[in-house]
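Table S2 (text version). Query chain:
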Amino acid sequence: MSNKIAKIISGSIAEELEIEVGDNLISINGTEIKDIIDYKFLMADDYIEVEIEKENGEIWTFEVEKEYQEDLGIEFENGIIDEARSCHNKCLFCFIDQLPKGMRKTLYFKDDDSRLSFLQGNFVTLTNMTDADLERIIRYRISPINVSVHTTNAELRKRMLNNRFAGTIYERLEKLAAAGINMNCQIVLCPGYNNGEELIKTVNDLYKLYPSVENVAAVPVAVTKFRKNIKEITLYDAESAKAEIDNVSKFQQKALMEIGTPFIRLADEFYVLSGSEIPDTEFYGDFDQIEDGIGMVRFFRDSITKNLKKINMKGKGSFSLITGVSAYNEILWAAKAIEKRNDRIIMNVHKVINNFFEPTITVAGLLTGQDVMKQIQPDSVLEYIIMPKNMFKSDENIMLDDITAVDLERYFNKKILICDFTGEDLIRLVNEHI
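Corresponding structure-token output:
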């Protein structure tokens, strides 16, 4: 456990009190700070007593009057202070269990920590929590949390998660809902296990907990060629993806009539794989599930259309866009729209197949640098290379196989521009480099 302070926010209470980087936060209002949830909860008052240990061992105590919910303005070396809790499940769909040996150590850590759910949006199964942990969520009003449900069928969930304690999920969701805790739920769909009728049963169960359960995201299982000693799973194809879209449509129409949202939404991959029309903008509401790949295509299309008029009509330049199989047609459409708007802009689009993990994995976020370099020749790229942000580890510009943006720049001898998934960001980048 480390409460060591790594950063002081300029203009903050901490700066005014002369709290320094390297100091340790010991307690607030006499309560020892064990993790970030303690800190957030205890800070939510207009008067606090703060105990700090200086680097020389001196203990300083401060009495602070502040605005309710106002923060001290500090950041810790360890974001959650305590060690993150690892997952004890052996889910038959776990992507981490399908990684090859020799990748960076952090990729193999499977977190199942409600604190990371609250702070970073990670999904948790709730199997790694005691009743006391659950009561703490309720007492501290930790909300919303993101829950990996997968199925409300107790016996099926035990089998899918390979955990004999996994069957209590619905009772725990009910308890959280009764306490007013908001939840977002995720389902990894595995054909032959929790799809079809089982999916509808799960969705109906979760719907009973609305509005505490605000929405449900369903994504298809992914399988790599490194999958060893794990039960085989059938993957979705065009026909079964279309069947799943049809499977949930009746429920979605019912929910739209009753609560104004479809409640459950399928990942874009289902629509792309089956060749089905992407739902309209209203279907996705505020695009709250976009990080799960829900509505990303629609959001991108809308953003390109809305911002196309911002293209600098006087500039000229050339760009190579790199993407995966599933997004290729959308990126190609956007490139042509930009070229049509300003014919002095040239854009080509490179589709990279995921040979590292498995060609059936088509999302850009799981591509590796080695596949990019093997499939795209340096003499085929234009003046600038644009790559999506989700190909890189957050804030570090490093891909899954430890190849960095700098490595790619050396290989291609071109500048790499990293783009958010929005059309607005793509157009911004283009304007900045023409």
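Notes on Table S2: The chain has three domains: 5-76, 96-294, 301-432. Residues 15 and 204 are 51 Å apart (CA to CA).
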